[in-house]
Fold this protein.
Amino acid sequence: MTFQQQIQQGIPNQLPQPKPYETHINHAPKRKEILSEEEKKLALKNALRYFEPKFHAELLKEFKDELEKYGRIYMYRFRPDYEIKARDIAEYPGKSEQAKAIMLMIQNNLDYAVAQHPHELITYGGNGAVFSNWAQYLLTMKYLSEMTDEQTLTMYSGHPMGLFPSHKDAPRVVVTNGMMIPNYSKPDDWEKFNALGVSQYGQMTAGSYMYIGPQGIVHGTTITVLNAFRKINKEPKGGLFVTSGLGGMSGAQPKAGNIAGCITVIAEVNPKITKIRHEQKWVNEIHENLDELMTRVRKAQENQETVSLAYLGNIVDIWEKFNEENLRIDIGSDQTSLHNPWAGGYYPVGQTFEESNMMMAENPELFKEKVQETLRRHASAINKHTAKGTYFFDYGNAFLLEASRAGADVMSDHPTLGREFKFPSYVQDIMGPMCFDYGFGPFRWVCTSGKPEDLQKTDDIACAVLEEMIKTSPEEIQQQMKDNITWIKGAQENNLVVGSQARILYADAEGRMKIAEAFNKAIANGEIGAVVLGRDHHDVSGTDSPYRETSNIYDGSRFTADMAIHNVIGDSFRGATWVSIHNGGGVGWGEVINGGFGMLLDGSDDADRRLKSMLFWDVNNGISRRSWARNEGAVFAIKRAMEVEPNLKVTLPNFVDENLF
Ligand SMILES: NC(=O)c1ccc[n+]([C@@H]2O[C@H](COP(=O)([O-])OP(=O)(O)OC[C@H]3O[C@@H](n4cnc5c(N)ncnc54)[C@H](O)[C@@H]3O)[C@@H](O)[C@H]2O)c1
């Protein structure tokens, strides 16, 4: 069968041969045993409902085995034989170009070069799922291959509920992931309902088909590292940045450190991941011996080198060793997956990677104790460094939240609403006031032809648009504009593409609209093929997350999720090709609501109309909320938007004189 025929077939009507468990692939850790015997039966019944009864006896045995061995039913046997990757859009079968674009994006999220645990359909963050099992994948691709522009596919946490009649301006796909009744949104609820096969953790861009490899975060990380050095009034050259994690997102840190020009030391416990990042040239060197690493860092400091050094081991060892040896760290952070602390997101110090994986599955209570003990040691070592002048920030991975829950010394002596912790989150100090409040966020695009030349042309178009805009940009956003122009000029030589031909750029509403409009014209003129627009959920308006994206909201509303919900509803009727809304993502289930969109630009007038309507809303929704929270940058930005668009009328806050109290 051709690739197209296999897609159109969906779930095959003959059982494929069982597939061996391939050990060279990076697999998800065994999930903890959470279901009772009765619930296991329910999980099996749930899995079998995808298949005709004649196959049930054979599959039951196999699925039961998977559930016992891995804690989940992935249906490995149904993993397709063709290569999964973003292909030229013309290769996808179907009646709708929009649906084909979505297939391309789904396949990119499952590409071996992109996905963290491809066989378990996990894209990043340890549990960021595109689907929960292979039957869902097969069925979804089949629906997409047969749908028209008068239908909408509804996705319930990885499960394709079906195609429903709609209209050409409606989204082709509406995705929800992990949306729970709020009271059932604790980490163990995820374990249980995911094991039952009725819910999943979509992370941000995994379950919404908008992941573009670590590039997606390199740009944001570069901006963060640059601005962290600006905050301590130090040039990155010769400066030392210490952090951890070489995974899906965290793997961007050494690359960003190199672009910023500092010395990066990054710990990673997983040997496979460390090797992959080194081979991909995202990190320059691997060290396994702490003394040798010390010598190497000192040499790099003396020579003011720009270099990234991976330490294959636990991050706590680094913080403690550098303290003993009195090595000064300029900026420090952490990007282990603490949104997922009990299932492989954070590894305890003093035991091997394998020992931890075993303990996690066989003795989860002891594992939890070890994690919390490590967090206390971790925070204590960081405190010793910050006492000597290190600038430490939480990198949106729930480090401070989990450390505080573990009883670590991370709470502020004078907590106020929004400043509970000793250390700021990167959004409170950097990303929020400098980017999000002005509307700058991680806008991205993917060239659906798969051609590097198209990406080069779109880079040139975007750069020309920004260079024109900066001439009249107000003083308040000059730095952001300059950083973006520098980024886009260096993007090609920094070799950022892993998977689809994609680019990310921090742009504000005006920049996003102008760039998109210019792309649509270039497509209409035949200069480039169709382009998918999107963004990270981690953006101005997409995410309500009190300890991350909305951590610089100080009016008490950071524990609400109205903004993210409004955003996805608003995007859906203003022309998005697909929309998504997730519980969880980044900082953990129950801790965040986040949403995103995808939009196909095909050069048509319809696309032009949609992009203007949707992108304007997609950014200004969040700015209006940030402005109402009295964030001064956002007040400035929303007033500016109202001058440009007379139909925009936003309620502005009045500031109260503190002396009145
Ligand atoms: N700041 C942001 O913009 C942003 C964006 C995306 C994700 N995140 C968050 O950052 C975290 C990391 O994301 P990811 O996609 O890289 O996850 P990931 O799970 O792919 O990578 C985390 C890595 O940390 C390693 N690790 C765990 N404990 C360790 C320890 N004690 N010492 C050394 N290494 C250890 C793991 O082996 C893993 O490879 C997540 O919580 C994610 O939600 C932040």
In short: Residues 116, 124-126, 217, 220, 244-250, 267-270, 273, 314-315, 335-339, 345-347, 395-397, 538, 586 surround nicotinamide-adenine-dinucleotide (CB under 6 Å).
